[in-house]
Amino acid sequence: MYRLGGEASGPTVRIGHLRDALAQRVRLDVVSGARLERAFALIGYALRGRLRGLAGIYVESSSSLPGPVDIIFLGLARLCRVRVLTYIRDAYQLFPEYYATDSAKRRISRAAFLPAVRALTKVSSLVAFPSRGLARSVLGDGWAQRAALLPPGAKVAPVSPVRPGARAFLYVGSLAHAAQGGGILVEAMALARERSQDLELICVTPPHDQPAGPRPGWLRYLRASGAEIEELLPEVLATITPRMRTPYNELAVPIKVLEYLGYGRPLIVTDVGETAAMVRAAGCGLVVPDTAEGLSAGIGEVASASPQQIRSWGAAALRAAEANSWEVRAARIMELLGVRP
Question: pLDDT band at 7, cuts 50/70/90?
C-alpha cells in the first residue's frame, strides 16, 4: 500500500527488502502505489484474471487508511480461495505523541482508523504485527493472541571494520518528533564532549526533519541511504536510538534498529520496550535511561571501550542480524501463507 521507487523511507525499505527476498523463492507480482493509483492497478489485475492460480497474497498496510478497492479486492481473493496475510505496521493514529489531531482531516482519520483496519483484518486469512503490544492496541487482548508476529528484518552483508581512531556515532531517522529523542540526542553528545572533545555525531536525516538554527561543528547532517550509509561505517563506533519512553515507543519495533544490527556496530538504545529487550537479549550494546545524561553516559562508555569490546558488541549485533534477516522474514511469510518454494 505504498508507492515504491521514490525516496527511501522506513516502510519502502522494508517492502523492498521483502520483495527481493520473496522473489528469490517464488514468482512474485507486486502491486504498489498511493490509494487511487493502487485501486486502478488492483482492478486491472482482477479483470485480467490474475487471481486464478495465486498461491497467496501478502499485504503491507500503509500508515494511511486502506481504500474501498483494497477491501473489495482482498474479499474477492478470499472468495477465490486465495490466502491473504496482512501486515499492520503501525497505529500512529491511536497515539497522540505521533499523531496530533490538529485538523478536521486528522480527526476523521483517527476516528476511522480502527474500523478501517478491522475491516482489513476481516478480509484477511491471517494478520501479522511487529509486536504483540501493537496487536493488542489494534485488536484488543483476545484477538491479539491469534495474530502472527513479523518484526522488521536486517540486511546481512559484509561490513567494514571500525577504523582505528574512529570517534563518530551514527543516528538514522527523523528528528521531527520529540518522542524520537532528537533533542536529548544532541544534548547528550554535547555532554559527552565535555569529557572527550574529539567525539562526533552523524545524523542521517532529511532536511525537512532537521532542527532549525545553528548547529555545532561536531554535528553532521547528511542525506544518505543504503550503500551511502555503509560507506560511513569505518568512522562509526556505535549507533544510537534515543527514543523517549512513550506509549507507542514501548510497543514499536523500529526498522532502523534492525538495520543497525546489520552494520556490525554496538547499539546504544534507551530503555524503551521492544528495542531495549532486543539489545539485552543479543548482548550487542548498551541500554540507557531516556535522558540526555543517560545517553551521554552510554556514549562515554562506548567511546572509552577497548577495540576488543567494540568488536565483541559488533559481532553480537551481526549474529542477531543473521537470526532476523529479511530472508528469515520472507521464509516466515511463506510459511504463514502455506506456500512452498
Answer: low
